[in-house]
Design a protein that fits this description.
- This protein has about 350 residues and is of the alpha/beta class.
- The protein has two domains: about 130 residues, Rossmann fold, CATH 3.40.50; about 130 residues, Response regulator (Rossmann fold).
- The chain contains eleven helices and twelve strands.
- The strands form two sheets. It has a six-stranded parallel beta sheet with strand order 2-1-3-4-5-11, with helices on both faces.
- Helix 3 runs parallel beside helix 4 and helix 5 crosses helix 6.
- It is elongated.
Length: about 350
C-alpha cells in the first residue's frame, strides 16, 4: 500500500514539472519579435525623416510644394527633404531617388510619380520595407499608397474646357499641348478637357494633341508647328506651367496674341505677365502649397499610426484678368506673400 502511494506521488510530481516547463515554453512565444525596437510613439519628432520626391524642382509650382512641405516640417519639428529630377522625362532618375530614400530608411515617402506604371515596383519595395508611401499631384496604378493628395485633375481639365469654349464662342479648331504622355496629371487633365469638349461642344474640333515633357522650348516648338499646320487655329490648351509658357511664347512670336486663345495650368510670374498682356487668357490654379503641407502632415500621421484620408482634394480655381486681383486668387498665387 505504501509502495502504491509513493508511486502515485511520484507520478503527480513528474506531471507538475512537465506542466511547469510547458507553461515556460509557451510564455516565450508571447514575447514580441520586435521587442528591442522602439515604437513610433516613443520616437521623438526630431528623429522622424520624411522624404518628399517631386516630379521636378525647376518650376515655381514645385518650389511652392517645397514651401508647403517645409512649413509642415517646421511645425511638426521633423526632418523633411525635397528633391526631383532635372527634367520631367527622367523617370529612371526618380526611381533612383525613391531607392535612395528607402536605403536611408526614411520613415515615410511623399511621392509625385513621373509615370503611373514605372514607379509601382519601387513603391512596392518601400511598402515591403515598412515605409508608408503617400502620393501627391500624380498617382501610381497601385493600392499601396495610403493617400493621394492632389487636385481633381479630370474636373480641372473640364473647367479649362468650359472656359476655352466661352472664349472662342463655342466653335473652332483647338489643340492640346500636354506635359507628359505617361503621367497621371497629364492624362487626367488632357482627358478631362477632351471629354468635356467632345460631349458638350460639337462645333469645336480638337485638331491635335502633342507632348512637351513640361519643357518650355519643346512646348514652343510644338505650338509653333500646330499653328503653322492649322492657320485658323482658335485656341491651345496647355496642361502645366512649362507647357503654358512655351505655348504663350510661341503665340507671341507668331504675333497671334488674342487671335489664338491660350488656356494654361498652374501659375508663375511668367504666366501672370502673359495674362496681364493678353497672351494667355486664363489658367487653372491648383494649390501646390497645400499639397506639400497636407502631404507631409499625412506622412506624419501615418508614421504615428493615426488615420489618414485616402483622397485629399486640394481644389482648383480658374484665373483670368477678371479675378486676378481678388484676395482669394492672390493668396493662391502668392501663398507666402509677394517676394
Amino acid at each position: 500500500m505504501k509502495k502504491l502511494l509513493c508511486l502515485m506521488m511520484s507520478l503527480l510530481l513528474v506531471a507538475a514539472l512537465f506542466v511547469g516547463c510547458a507553461q515556460k515554453e509557451d510564455s516565450k512565444t508571447d514575447v514580441p519579435q520586435n521587442s528591442e525596437q522602439k515604437s513610433e510613439d516613443n520616437v521623438s519628432n526630431d528623429e522622424i525623416y520624411v522624404a518628399v520626391i517631386s516630379k521636378g524642382f525647376q518650376h515655381e509650382f514645385w518650389q511652392t510644394v517645397k514651401l508647403g512641405a517645409d512649413t509642415a516640417g517646421k511645425e511638426l519639428g521633423i526632418k523633411v527633404t525635397f528633391e526631383g529630377p532635372k527634367d520631367e522625362s527622367m523617370v529612371a532618375e526618380q526611381v533612383a531617388m525613391v531607392e535612395n530614400a528607402i536605403a536611408k530608411k526614411a520613415d515615410a515617402i511623399l511621392l509625385a510619380a513621373l509615370d503611373t506604371e514605372a514607379l509601382v515596383p519601387v513603391v512596392e519595395k518601400a511598402h515591403d520595407a515598412g515605409i508608408p508611401v503617400l502620393m501627391f499631384d500624380s498617382n501610381v496604378n497601385s493600392d499601396i499608397p495610403l493617400s493621394f493628395v492632389a487636385t481633381d485633375n479630370v474636373a480641372a481639365g473640364a473647367l479649362a474646357a468650359k472656359e476655352m469654349a466661352k472664349m472662342i464662342g463655342g466653335k473652332g479648331k483647338i489643340g492640346i499641348i500636354a506635359h507628359n504622355e505617361g503621367t497621371s496629371t497629364a492624362i487626367e487633365r488632357r482627358d478631362g478637357f477632351k471629354n468635356e469638349i467632345e460631349k458638350n461642344y460639337p462645333d469645336i474640333e480638337i485638331v491635335g494633341i502633342q507632348y512637351s515633357d513640361g519643357d518650355h522650348a519643346k512646348a514652343l516648338a510644338k505650338a509653333t508647328d500646330m499653328m503653322t499646320r492649322t492657320p485658323d487655329l482658335a485656341g491651345i490648351y496647355a496642361t502645366n506651367e512649362g507647357s503654358a509658357i512655351g505655348v504663350a511664347t510661341a503665340v507671341q512670336e507668331k504675333d497671334k496674341a488674342g487671335q489664338v486663345k491660350v488656356v494654361g495650368f498652374d501659375s508663375s510670374e511668367a504666366e501672370i505677365n502673359f495674362l496681364k498682356n493678353d497672351v494667355i487668357q486664363g489658367f487653372v490654379v491648383q494649390n501646390p502649397f497645400k499639397m506639400g503641407y497636407l502631404g507631409v502632415k499625412g506622412c506624419y500621421d501615418a508614421i504615428k499610426g493615426n488615420p489618414v484620408e485616402s483622397r485629399i482634394d486640394t481644389g482648383a480655381t480658374f484665373v483670368s484678368k477678371d479675378n486676378l486681383d481678388t484676395e482669394e486668387v492672390q493668396k493662391l498665387l502668392y501663398p507666402l506673400g509677394k517676394k
